[in-house]
Amino acid sequence: MGYQKKYLPLILGAAIAVGILIGGKLSFSNGSGRSFTSNSKKEKLNRLIDYIDYDYVDEINTDSIVDVTVNGILENLDPHSVYIPKEEMASSTESMRGDFVGIGVSFYPYKDSIAVIRPIEGGPSEKAGIIGGDRIVMADGDSLFGSRLREDDMVKKLKGPVDTDVVLKIFRKGEPELLNITVKRGHIPLKSVDAAYMLTKKLGYIKVNRFAETTYDEFKTGLDKLIDLGATEIALDLRENPGGFLDIANKILDEFLEENKLLLFTKNRRGQIDKSFATDEGDFEDGKLYVLIDENSASASEIVAGAIQDNDKGTIIGRRSYGKGLVQREMDLGDGSAVRLTVSRYYTPTGRSIQRPYKNGNKDYYDEYYERLESGELLDEEKIQVADSLKFTTPGGKVVYGGGGIIPDVFVPIDSSMQNETLTFLQRRGFIRYFVFEELEKDRHKYDNITRQDFIDSYEVEDDMVFSFQDYLNVRTDSDITFVAYHKEVKQFIKATLGEQIFGNGAFNEIFNQRDIMIDEVIKLSDESLKE
Questions:
Q1: Which region is the signal sequence (predicted)?
Q2: Taking the domain 99-189, which CATH number applies?
Q3: Cα gap 354→303, rounded to integer Å
Q4: Residues in contact with 52: Cβ distance below 8 Å, sequence separation at least 6, in sequence order
């Protein structure tokens, strides 16, 4: 199908770019304290910019030239040294800090207004009484509706300094007049732990989507809950996790590994080695662990998987990980922009580097996903290429390999029924989410008397809703999208999205995982271990 080839590289490229941007080891200060003296190379660049500024025949925005120059320099270093323009710094910092200041709603522009999908749990809007389906039409007297109003403008009117009030006018179906609701802006968490629940009576599950500043606290809350529920085994899901802060990954590892176990070490250009060890703080050192990875698990995710594998602690399940073993540090450029520059390599406890080669340039580097797909590696573990020269042995005698990602102990092929191009396109472009919202708008009270657990266990999406979704797509896209062969899978996506919008709190993952072959493999391994 034409649209698939058109959009899939864009979708995958964007997903990987997020992981590259947030990097492996980020530091929000220069750290070195060194001052740089001028030299001929710097003078040459300065002179060129001055000549263009003062003598070039046309008026030129030299800021854009500098941006292009910086990007060009970094692209010739490695794929993970990146430039962050000042206009992108705020969102980048928010993502890694793990929160932002706002009113706390998940929304999308709907019929020229802000439609609340659901308020963020525990956030200011939920406390003020805003509910899913509300339309925010005014903020402090300013209109928030109309075809000319951009989404960025909407967000700016809702954001503001922490602890300041914003008076909202809300349209709510069934109410005769607009509601006046005052919301006090606050710190809104950007959740990095999507779900923490029990798969079986003994096996707990935690899904981590990135390693931000708040991730360890979220993870620890989830782990403690599962321990209280009787978990003696944990499935840690790091699939699609692009990485983040190295020290957060180490803190999570510390929960599983005994005191003085080596977690990883880094080495810079001068040969300086820094080692990280587990402390005596771990709460799950005696429990059994499964780590789930896939081809998009990168950086800090690979640090966790590598340390667990090299210390013979748990079982790594899935497919070969991304292969990023370079460490970045963020450095301020003085004008609000920054670079994240690769400053060292990291190595797993056995001494292996899992960074894949990048000598053929960035394009070939990022296109390796397609090489893995075409080679059959994502379907057959025998197709994974390893080099005997990069063979290492764990203390327990297990053979592991470096040179391009973490190879799992138990291979699980990609599920073509749930991860095909059609479903990926529909999910990532938001079509399923928007359709579900509009279905809920028809009658939200239909679900008032069903509990979260009953919905997860027993609710079934009717065929008529799937047919309605097909009609919805026919009206809103110019592509001939059909999913006759994936009827059951579309039902699963719709049910999971319904659960998310009605109940939140990890419902999407808990529902979606019911048809996940990697989760099935974990449960199977857990059951077998209990019989031993």
A1: none
A2: 2.30.42.10
A3: 9
A4: 60, 62, 65
Question: Which two structure tokens, joined as six digits, stand for 223?
Answer: 């782990």
Confirm whether 99-189 and 193-412 share one CATH topology.
no
In the set 310, 337, 353, 526, the catalytic residue is: 310
pLDDT at 208: 98
Backbone angles phi, psi at 226, to 5 degrees: -70, -40
Q: Retrieve residue 311's tokens.
A: 């210390």
What DSSP string runs through 200-240? Answer: SSSEEEEEE--B-TTHHHHHHHHHHHHHHTT-SEEEEE-TT
> Residue 74 is inside which H or E element, if any?
helix 62-75
Contact 128, 113 (CB under 8 A): no
Write down the catalytic residue from 92, 125, 299, 344.
299
Name, in order, each residue with C-beta under 8 angstroms of 403's C-beta and a sequence gap of 6 or more. 352, 353, 354, 356, 357, 386, 387, 390
CB of 292 closer than 8 Å to CB of 518: yes
Give me the pLDDT at residue 38, please: 54
Distance CA 307, CA 328 (A): 19
Contact 204, 197 (CB under 8 A): yes
Q: Which residues contact 79 (CB under 8 A, 6 or more apart)?
A: 20, 358, 362, 365, 366
Would you kindly state where each structural domain of the chain is located, as residue ranges?
Answer: 99-189, 193-412, 421-515
d(CA 208, CA 195): 8
- Verify whether residue 324 is a known catalytic residue: yes
Strand partners, 183: 166
Q: How far apart are the C-alpha atoms of 338 and 357, rounded to whole Å? A: 26
Q: Looking at 261, 288, 324, 491, which residue is catalytic?
A: 324
193-412 has which CATH code? 3.90.226.10
For 357, counting Cβ atoms within 10 Å of its Cβ (0-12 exposed, 13-18 middle, 19+ buried), the class is exposed
Q: How far apart are CA 212 and CA 200, in angstroms?
A: 29
pLDDT score, position 480: 75
Please indicate whether residue 237 is annotated as part of the active site.
no
Q: CA–CA separation, 250 vs 461, rounded Å?
A: 41
Residue bearing tokens 């928007």: 434
Q: At what angle do helices 246-254 and 215-228 cross, to 10 degrees?
A: 20
Task: Give per-10-residue mean pLDDT for the chain (532 aa).
Answer: 41 42 40 54 84 86 84 90 89 80 87 86 92 93 79 81 94 93 91 96 97 96 98 98 96 98 96 96 96 97 98 97 95 90 96 92 86 93 91 96 95 88 84 92 90 95 93 82 83 95 93 96 92 67
Checking phi first, is residue 124 left (phi over 0); if not, alpha (psi -120 to 50) or beta?
alpha
Angle between the 431-442 and 487-503 helix axes, to the nearest 10 degrees? 60
Is 248 in contact with 300 (CB distance < 8 Å)? Answer: yes
Is 310 an active-site residue?
yes
Q: What is residue 406's three-state secondary structure? A: coil
With contact defined as beta carbons under 8 Å apart, do 276 and 257 qualify?
A: no
Q: What is the pLDDT of residue 4?
A: 42
Token pair listed for 96? 């890694």
